[in-house]
Amino acid sequence: MTAGTHQMKLALPIEHVWSFISDVNNWAYCIDGYIHHQMINPKQSNWKIKGDLGVVQRTVQIKVHIMEWKKPNKIVFRFSGLQGKINGNGYFKAFDNNQTTEVCTHISIQLNGLKGSLIRPVLKPLMPKIVKRLTERVAKEITQKHPIPLA
């Protein structure tokens, strides 16, 4: 399994972070290669994503299932490819630190089959960067919705 984790601090209270990450519709488009998603119910959605690893490009459809919502600090999800060649999991965690919030994002992905064995070595060094970009995009969106007040 290939994984990446990224942590950063936001100068916002945890409630603002939770109001954003608790709704998949707010952060789905922050994923690299996002094309679109469709909500099946509040805990399940189908996504279409274009994976671009330079020499390898492929559009995949995945099913995302929210496994745990723990207000105000944790969302845990798993995902699987509709063709069965991809599966994985991830989370957003938020840690209250007075009027700042530490945000941690993690994604693990398993690619199966012959193509998966060829792509894994390319994806492994990219996963930390992919998760970092996701975390930074989510942070940017949250701060745009809740601007930091000037002193």
Automatic annotation (TrEMBL):
InterPro entries: CO_DH_gsu, START-like_dom_sf
One Pfam entry name: COXG
Protein name per UniProt: SRPBCC family protein
Organism listed in the record: Cerasibacillus terrae
